[in-house]
């Protein structure tokens, strides 16, 4: 048999017929070939070929060079060793190259062919007399194999004419399906998609594998699946691409599962075998027919579990090496079907999106001269969604620059002018239940881009289960959750807002949400109408209400709960009459110095007034029991905070760059649920109130550049604190200290038992750091120029220790940094002695005493950056530190991490973990490199490697053999 890995031959013929001449050449076969010619199908004809017992090179080439082999099995077919040898070669091509084979049983029973019985068997046995056992066995295997392939049996047709017509039609269809396609190969970004899927597909494995392609509507799932199918379908015995299952095979509401599954199996088998009439009497048919076949099945746009259960429930239904690909926007369908190999389709990069758009708009991969900015502007409106790029690119194709400029303002509010995008996207919305539809509209109209916690808090009383609803929308790819923020594609946002606006086009006051500036202006300037339907107003950035709004503009919006004002034109005094039901108020650049006196924040959950002119919020004590987030950052004029006695549920307080703020109210101690307190760059802040000792849930405290802060807290334990930033706090001292330039941190820091991150950047007079708890994961002491000592030790490895420009560190501190970190940076002039293998330059050879055991082996590596100048530093940001290892001729990347800033004259140490299976030799070549997008790199002066034989944690004590210094110094 031909090996499966053999490359497929170049096809010269459409069809190769194998037949016994005396039986069929002048009658049945001649009519078949004539019908094929009438359909433009090219068949190999051997009229002039000399017959011999063996299949010669010319005939072998003809068989291999044909897309389909027809085996016309007649009564005397087995009388010819020529025919039998042809058949063996055909079966080899089927198994080796995936050649299509169609058996035609002409006046013979397939069972007789399979078992070599009956008249067919008698003829075969006569032929076998005197032949070699090996030849006989090959013939038997080939006959058995071909008899099991679905084909045509002459007894099933009333007339030969009809049979021949059906044969020609099926061959034509098979050729159409098997014709190699490259129409999707050149699509932008397709190669990177294919590369990402290869590890999931494992096409070289005989395992039967199911894989999902998941993503939002319009992102290109079907296109990716189609490209994959076109590339690989010829590698399978049978293949089928069933497209648009959700629409074509919609499941009726009242149908029973069994009937639906029978129907879907019938569709699968019909398309897979190219048979129009397929009888499916039970659900075991697929398994019975396909269990020994290598098949490729693509189920496109599935949206119900029953679809997968009907057509691809078990991997045991298919033969070795089979692959089942399912595209869907509903991740739950994949999970429920037990599919663990899932390829998530993400938005293209900016460059890829621009190329996609330009291909549709200009028929080239870059903008035409003069259209560069216009193309980027349209692309930003679409949000890089491939469907939108296609529709908008096609819309602008051939249009003049003047037309583009005129059309852009209209597109900002009515992007999908012909409704083509909405028709596709709205399918996803329509299948939601009413509760989830309402949640989708809330997010599209107001909450896209907001933190999950905020959304859950604001909507918990509006929905039965907000968290479950968000999970449904996420699984259906209608939203995404990244870094705890809710994301929604721009086109989906616009779809939601269009749906909302259609509630009442002529009366915006009947809308639930208002997003259009003209609608907002109309509602707020109408002094008479009742607008109780409106619960949310979102005035986008740079939008302006041109109509005049009065002080009582909000008085008639009695149910207003969500208000975001990024634009202009709303009277700030209208806050006096805003609904007491208000839960979210987002109003950057608020112009007033204080809120109007009647403002009632009783139900307020979120208050964001960044970059405002506020000097104080309000005068009296206000009810703040529901408030969870207060953000007054960049309010440079803010001098005082209100009384926070009632803010017992406040979680986040952001006062970054409130540079006029002198103190915090003692009532902040009542905010017992406060998690994050950001006081970075509060340059007038002198001290912190002692009541802060009550903030036992505080996990993040930012005090960066609080340059006048003298005392933090003494003799207290902030038990939940995880992140503490003291960078630039040069005047810090304990209550009992009198020095104005801190040289030592107060020991209380060591008693913060859960602290994970400590920032000390720019504390230029700091000489030592006191003992710290084992919970520390990161310390950044950049530019602590006087730092000499580290008076602490860890039982566990600290993830990151940054000490750039700390030139006075003593040797004990430097050794400790190497020992205690997974990744570290500090000044140095030579590779430390502790590294067993050292070398000048960027590569070093490591010789292992024995092949590693276990799953992985760890090394501590080090590079020394050559000295440089200040001009060089600006090119070295966002550099990647890469380590490639060569073992036995194989090269693999063992470490590749981004370095925030490469510092000339500094050492970088890091742990490199190597999978044992990658190590094929006891000699390893470590090659280090610093890669930068500006093509500027810092020279690596030297490098070192130390093998960590003790996997859990290396001990760097004097008695540790792994920490012995090398003889050669650098």
Automatic annotation (TrEMBL):
Listed Pfam families: C-JID, LRR_3, NB-ARC, TIR, WHD_ROQ1
Catalytic activity: NAD(+) + H2O = ADP-D-ribose + nicotinamide + H(+)
UniProt cross-references to Gene3D superfamilies, sorted A to Z: Helical domain of apoptotic protease-activating factors, P-loop containing nucleotide triphosphate hydrolases, Ribonuclease Inhibitor, Toll/interleukin-1 receptor homology (TIR) domain
Name assigned to this protein: ADP-ribosyl cyclase/cyclic ADP-ribose hydrolase
InterPro entries recorded: AAA+_ATPase (IPR003593), Apaf_helical (IPR042197), C-JID (IPR045344), Disease_R_plants (IPR044974), Leu-rich_rpt_3 (IPR011713), LRR_dom_sf (IPR032675), NB-ARC (IPR002182), P-loop_NTPase (IPR027417)
Domain of life, source organism: Eukaryota
SMART domains in the record: AAA, TIR
Keyword Repeat: yes
Enzyme class: hydrolase
Keywords: Hydrolase, Leucine-rich repeat, NAD, Plant defense, Repeat
Domain TIR stretches: 11-175
One of the record's GO molecular function terms: ADP binding
Higher taxonomy: Eukaryota, Viridiplantae, Streptophyta, Embryophyta, Tracheophyta
GO-annotated biological processes: defense response; signal transduction
Annotated EC: 3.2.2.6
